[in-house]
Structure to design on (1399 residues):
């Protein structure tokens, strides 16, 4: 990973512990892989316990180094989760927009975090696999998709998990969780909310950027800066926009967010 | 030489077959039983038990091997090795080990665990052999000067196939038994029996052995030696995907060929696969790493999974065939991971490899549904499949899950979490500086080490090295994982001390793993030192420096942390499941939900265990009849399950539900303990027998059916919570009334018929028979002012008794205001219905005003109280009743009469029911407060503590009580000769005033039935209570001086029972309860005592293993602990004695 902002004068840097939670096979690891390596693999090795990765996110006023704990999704690993979300300052609770049960599970995680995690934890609710819906349809045909295919380590039949859902839907829109339902819930609980596609990259970086912005300055170990809410840079705005109109976003904007 | 058979005959004549091995049964071991230690050491299947053991010398004959002619001279000269050790016999195996062992029941506990100490790299079974009896071809008794008994075993080694190997000499082992003649003979006798059984299994032995690469290796070596062209007559057995896709690593660098040669030689001298004899070379050969093609087979052998396969050679194929085409959650989960298991190995990028992986994981998920599939199993199985066939991997996985990695892959993964705790505490003990650093910089060790254990280092280290770890792991057991883990931290200690956070910690280790093949001392002058790789260094550190980490260290540390880990998991599980109970549950407080949760699972587990014990008992009874040998099966696992241990039962059936209710509501406790439960009297644990017995009442069945989504399946937690939430969640009386009504609305059409009304009243009596716990108070307004006699009675009546009156009024009113269900009536128009309803309302109000005739009035109760519980009193009553009623309320009675006629079906609707209930203050209160509050959740002390049933008898509100009170007051005021419960004469005139007509008689019959049943129940109870009290009085009369008097008062009943008697009664009750509580406390102390004892062990072990640290202060605490533990023991004995 490289930092594009390296030319600039050194900004205060601070690290943020972020944990990913959510039902199995919603794409937690893929979101991280997209964010950290701007890559997508049809078949990632399963996460045993948790995977640890880091990525920097450069905000206008400071640099946030995300220490990402990507947890295993299988139900029985849930009892290990407290080990990973301990001291986390941010959490990404991921569900699959094509699978309503995964939103229920996500709600459980949110409730768990709100009660058990450190107070003031920033939680983002993320609906992944947007590329399987009509909203994400355009995007999946964009440039990024081509790139994925070349990078995919193994061949096609292994992508079955994600592709199955698409084929099931007659209309080509496999969406089963409406944006409105999820937004409503997120607002109720005071969560950040995004719909993303790890496959196409839609909104992935925006999620992390929004989290970086939402981390209260007081909870950062080092660094000064103008604070999360005030820095209305173009970057932050684009994140805001994405929350309103997801369909219009194209993959290119996602890339400009963080220095990856 | 005495022929074997005659020897056996002689032995048999001397030994009574009855006296062997029976004691093994009668000793129910709590800690790992001797049998399980035995199985663990020799890696035997669960069906095996230690039958005989004897000290013996194993004399290995001269090496007979070697096709090489040059060696033939050596054969003559070299003396065989002799090992001293213990010889063990189980049903199907004969085992010899140089490790000191003893599993015979007479052995002390400490002796039986010695093998868990240091093994010096020889594995827990040391040198020796583990032979299935089926592979023994012949046993001879040898003449020997020095030993009385010297046996020569000839095995099937190499003889299972027609093809003879070159220079083949049958394997012959000589065992010299050391012991009394009798002991030796007993041993031989058992051996003979086993051998006879073993002969039946030679065929499966042949099947199993044919899959072993060693057979192929030896036979093909011969073929090559004889004739090069003939070499490939036999296909090599499946030695894993590696045969197709190459084995990982560079075979030359691994020196695979020379390893293979060494193993070939070893096999020739010491037997192969099942007949292999372990000598020190065996362990050394494993330490240097197994050759690729033999790896699977040796894993199978050292882990003991070979014996499982031998036991049921076709289980894998059969399982696959049996479940073919079926779906399951596990299969879905497996499918998701198939493509991501060791993807870097080419075999798993092919359909072949993925297919094998799928089949093994799927088959296992079927035979072990409790585990099903857990991520990480895919990685482990994928690794196994590189070296072994599907069937081999299947059985090895089963050994992994059950013995080597206990609880790792369970649904709560408690084994994984537990071993992380164990690992952390070992790090703390062995590397305190590093531990301090980790704690200070807030690095959580387990986030790093968890995958090491969960996937056996397979995805942490490069594969070649992970397999080297596995080689030793399968031989020496789980401790290897800990030793290697500790060594990793030790080797990287300095670098790790510089890390400040999880991230850098992880990256240090990552880079270390990637350089395992590099030289550990790259700059060393010494070329030998330079040649040592980092991995070799790691192995040396692991097995030399951490040789103190033994199986017993692990077992003890696990024991120490188990409670806390399980509790953590359970807290998490409870928190999560309570939170996820849905909106309905929000009507109950979190505390209430917690109580329901705890009680739900407690009941389930208790019930489950109870069933198990009964089952085991019946099985044992059956077995006793059939055969003696099969009695040797392991005793029932009497451990009560708990949530943390893995998949919990999720549904309770009706009987378990009754247990649950009995723990929740007083009324659900049976009146007379014991007899109602069938088949439970024998063999149940004491704790269960002392519990409150749940009642069985129609009302409970209704509740069960109402709460269950599917009564067949049972009630899950959600059902119970929803059920209770509806009852307790809203204080709304209307809600409660309509809920009750719904319970009896069988057809679901909003109507309850005659039968239902009677059942409702029965239920009301059932629910109220233990009093109201102060939730209902009768005010003066309910009382009927019209009779002086009545007033007099009212004064002496308590709420319970008044409630009986209310119930009888309820029945009467119900019938009075019921709607006929005749078809022509149903045709009435809507207006009619409403008109009727208003009319009814009016009439109801009127009826309420001049409410004089309760169906079963307090006074009537006396008459219903008549001697024979059958119909006889009815005839006596009827005439008077009729004459009486004519004066009063003829019209009402007639309509009601009509209503009671079975030819005129009738029903009440919810509004009617509601009106009837609200018309009576007591009933109103019943539904408003008592009924919901009778379900005790967190807000009340656990009723079970109060519920020892004997103490309740006096608290029962029954007709007989009522009758006796009434009659006593009567006998005081009148001349009528009245006896209580047993009196048979109905006083004329007076008491019959309330008895109206036929309507009533029907109701009375019902009431009489109820009464009869309750009467009987109470008599039972009193008898019991009396008996019990007498017993207790014998024990300690001084403590409860009062009881003798009250005990007399109960059966006599009548004379002393007035207003005052009740008070005395409560006192009596509290005395009994105190006594019960004492018992309970005793039980608690007993539990505490156990804990103390285990912690005492910990203390000891701690002192043993870290002597430097603990030093003198520890010994003093040890002393203190041991004394308290002894106390615990003494108390537990006392409690046992008492109960």
């Amino acid at each position: 990973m490289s930092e594009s902002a390296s030319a600039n004068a050194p900004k205060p840097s601070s690290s943020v512990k972020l944990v990913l939670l959510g039902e199995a096979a919603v794409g937690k690891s893929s979101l991280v892989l997209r964010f950290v390596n701007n890559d997508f693999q049809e078949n990632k090795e399963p996460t045993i316990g948790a995977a640890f990765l880091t990525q920097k996110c450069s905000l206008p006023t400071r640099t946030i180094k995300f220490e990402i704990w990507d947890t295993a999704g299988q139900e029985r690993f849930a009892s290990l989760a407290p080990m990973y979300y301990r001291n986390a300052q941010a959490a990404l609770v991921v569900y699959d927009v094509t699978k309503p049960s995964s939103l229920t599970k996500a709600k459980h995680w949110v409730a768990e975090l709100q009660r058990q995690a450190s107070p003031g934890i920033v939680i983002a609710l993320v609906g992944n696999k947007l590329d399987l819906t009509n909203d994400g349809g355009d995007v999946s045909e964009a440039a990024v998709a081509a790139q994925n295919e070349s990078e995919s380590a193994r061949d096609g039949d292994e992508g079955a998990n994600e592709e199955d859902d698409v084929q099931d839907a007659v209309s080509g829109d496999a969406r089963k969780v409406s944006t409105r339902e999820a937004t409503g819930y997120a607002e109720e609980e005071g969560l950040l909310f995004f719909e993303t596609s790890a496959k196409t990259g839609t909104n992935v970086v925006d999620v992390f950027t929004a989290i970086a912005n939402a981390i209260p300055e007081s909870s950062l170990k080092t660094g000064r800066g103008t604070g999360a809410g005030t820095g209305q840079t173009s970057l932050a705005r684009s994140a805001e926009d994405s929350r309103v109109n997801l369909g219009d976003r194209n993959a290119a904007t996602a890339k400009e967010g963080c220095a990856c | 030489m005495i022929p074997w058979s005659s020897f056996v005959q002689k032995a048999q004549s001397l030994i009574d077959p009855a006296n062997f091995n029976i004691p093994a049964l009668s000793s129910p071991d709590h800690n790992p039983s001797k049998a399980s230690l035995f199985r663990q050491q020799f890696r035997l299947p669960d069906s095996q038990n230690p039958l005989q053991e004897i000290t013996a010398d194993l004399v290995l004959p001269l090496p007979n091997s070697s096709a090489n002619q040059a060696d033939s001279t050596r054969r003559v000269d070299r003396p065989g090795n002799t090992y001293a050790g213990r010889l063990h016999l189980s049903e199907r195996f004969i085992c010899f080990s140089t490790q000191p062992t003893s599993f015979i029941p007479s052995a002390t506990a400490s002796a039986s665990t010695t093998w868990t100490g240091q093994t010096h790299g020889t594995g827990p079974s040391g040198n020796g052999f583990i032979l299935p009896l089926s592979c023994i071809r012949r046993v001879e008794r040898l003449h020997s000067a020095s030993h009385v008994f010297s046996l020569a075993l000839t095995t099937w080694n190499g003889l299972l196939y027609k093809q003879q190997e070159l220079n083949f000499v049958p394997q012959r082992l000589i065992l010299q038994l050391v012991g009394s003649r009798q002991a030796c003979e007993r041993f031989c006798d058992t051996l003979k029996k086993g051998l006879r059984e073993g002969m039946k299994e030679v065929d499966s032995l042949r099947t199993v052995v044919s899959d072993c690469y060693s057979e192929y290796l030896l036979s093909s070596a011969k073929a090559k030696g004889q004739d090069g062209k003939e070499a490939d007559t036999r296909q090599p057995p499946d030695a894993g995907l590696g045969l197709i896709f190459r084995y990982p690593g560079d075979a030359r660098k691994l020196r695979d060929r020379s390893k293979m040669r060494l193993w070939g030689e070893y096999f020739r001298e010491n037997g192969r696969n099942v007949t292999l004899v372990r000598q020190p070379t065996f362990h050394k050969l494993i330490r240097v790493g197994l050759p690729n093609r033999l790896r699977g087979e040796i894993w199978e052998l050292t882990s003991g999974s070979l014996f499982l396969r031998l036991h049921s050679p076709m289980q894998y194929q059969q399982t696959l065939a049996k479940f073919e085409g079926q779906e399951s959650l596990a299969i879905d989960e497996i499918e998701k991971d198939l493509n991501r298991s060791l993807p870097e190995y080419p075999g798993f990028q092919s359909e072949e490899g993925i297919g094998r992986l799928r089949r093994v994981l799927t088959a296992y998920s079927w035979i072990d549904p409790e585990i099903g599939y857990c991520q990480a199993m895919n990685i482990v199985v994928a690794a196994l499949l590189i070296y072994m066939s599907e069937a081999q991997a299947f059985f090895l996985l089963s050994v992994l899950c059950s013995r080597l990695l206990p609880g790792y892959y369970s649904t709560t993964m408690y084994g994984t979490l537990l071993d992380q705790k164990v690992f952390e505490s070992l790090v703390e003990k062995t590397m305190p500086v590093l531990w301090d650093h980790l704690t200070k910089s807030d690095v959580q060790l387990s986030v790093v080490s968890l995958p090491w254990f969960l996937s056996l280092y397979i995805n942490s280290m490069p594969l070649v090295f992970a397999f080297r770890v596995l080689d030793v792991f399968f031989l020496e057991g789980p401790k290897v994982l800990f030793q290697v883990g500790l060594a990793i931290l030790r080797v990287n200690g300095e670098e790790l001390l510089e890390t400040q956070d999880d991230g850098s910690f992880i990256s240090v280790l990552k880079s270390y793993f990637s350089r395992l093949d590099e030289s550990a001392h790259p700059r060393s002058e010494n070329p030998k030192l330079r040649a040592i790789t980092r991995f070799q260094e790691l192995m040396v550190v692991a097995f030399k420096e951490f040789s103190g980490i033994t199986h017993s260290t692990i077992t003890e540390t696990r024991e120490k942390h188990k409670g806390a880990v399980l509790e953590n998991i359970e807290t998490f599980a409870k928190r999560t499941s309570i939170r996820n109970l849905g909106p309905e549950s929000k009507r109950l407080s979190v505390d209430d939900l917690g109580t329901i949760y705890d009680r739900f699972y407690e009941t389930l587990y208790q019930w489950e265990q109870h069933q198990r014990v009964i089952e085991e008992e019946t099985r044992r009874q059956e077995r006793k009849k059939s055969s003696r040998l099969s009695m040797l099966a392991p005793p029932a696992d009497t451990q009560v399950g708990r949530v943390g241990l893995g998949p919990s039962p999720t549904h309770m059936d009706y009987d378990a539900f009754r247990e649950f209710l009995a723990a929740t509501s007083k009324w659900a406790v049976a009146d007379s303990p014991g007899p109602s439960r069938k088949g439970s009297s024998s063999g149940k644990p004491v704790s269960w027998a002392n519990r409150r017995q749940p009642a069985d009442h129609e009302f409970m069945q209704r509740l069960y059916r109402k709460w269950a989504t599917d009564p067949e399946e049972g009630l899950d937690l959600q059902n119970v919570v929803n059920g209770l939430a509806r009852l307790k969640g809203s204080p709304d009386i209307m809600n409660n009334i309509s809920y009750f009504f719904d319970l009896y609305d069988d057809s679901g059409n909003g109507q309850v018929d005659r039968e239902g009304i009677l059942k409702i009243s029965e239920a009301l009596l059932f629910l109220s028979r233990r009093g109201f716990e102060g939730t209902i108070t009768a005010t003066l307004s309910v009382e009927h002012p019209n009779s002086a006699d009545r007033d007099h009675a009212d004064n002496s009546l308590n709420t319970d008794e008044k409630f009986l009156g209310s119930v009888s009024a309820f029945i009467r009113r119900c019938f009075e205001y019921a709607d006929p269900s005749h078809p022509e009536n149903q045709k009435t128009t809507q207006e009619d219905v409403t008109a009727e309803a208003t009319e009814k309302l009016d009439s109801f109000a009127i009826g309420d005003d001049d409410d004089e005739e309760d169906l079963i009035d307090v006074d009537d109760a006396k008459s219903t109280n008549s001697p024979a519980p059958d119909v006889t009193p009815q005839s006596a009553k009827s005439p008077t009743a009729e004459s009486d009623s004519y004066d009063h309320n003829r019209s009402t009675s007639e309509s009601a009469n009509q209503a009671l006629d079975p030819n005129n079906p009738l029903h009440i609707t919810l509004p009617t029911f509601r009106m009837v209930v609200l018309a009576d203050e007591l009933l109103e209160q019943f539904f408003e407060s008592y009924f919901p509050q009778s379900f005790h959740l967190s807000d009340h002390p656990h009723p079970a503590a109060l519920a020892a049933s004997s103490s309740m008898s006096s608290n029962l509100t029954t007709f007989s009580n009522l009758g006796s009170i009434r009659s006593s007051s009567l006998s005081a005021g009148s001349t009528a000769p009245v006896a209580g419960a047993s009196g048979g004469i109905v006083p004329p005139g007076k008491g019959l005033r309330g008895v109206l007509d036929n309507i009533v008689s029907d109701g009375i019959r019902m009431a009489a039935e109820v009464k009869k049943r309750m009467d009987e129940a109470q008599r039972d109870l009193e008898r019991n209570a009396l008996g019990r009290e007498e017993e207790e009085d014998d024990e300690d009369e001084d403590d409860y001086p009062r009881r003798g008097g009250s005990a007399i008062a109960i059966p006599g009943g009548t004379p002393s029972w007035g207003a005052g008697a009740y008070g005395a009664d409560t006192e009596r009750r509290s005395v009994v309860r105190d006594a019960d509580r004492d018992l309970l406390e005793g039980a608690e102390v007993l539990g505490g005592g156990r804990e103390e004892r285990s912690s005492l062990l910990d203390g000891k072990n701690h002192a043993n293993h870290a002597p430097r640290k603990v030093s003198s202060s520890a010994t003093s605490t040890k002393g203190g602990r041991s004394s308290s533990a002894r106390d615990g023991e003494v108390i537990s004995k006392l409690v046992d004695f008492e109960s």
In short: Chain A touches chain B through 39 residues (CB under 8 Å). Residues 13-137+174-220 of chain A form a domain with the Rossmann fold fold (CATH 3.40.50.300). The first strand of chain A starts at residue 13 and ends at 22. Confidence is low (pLDDT under 50) at residues 1-7, 137-170, 222-260 of chain A.
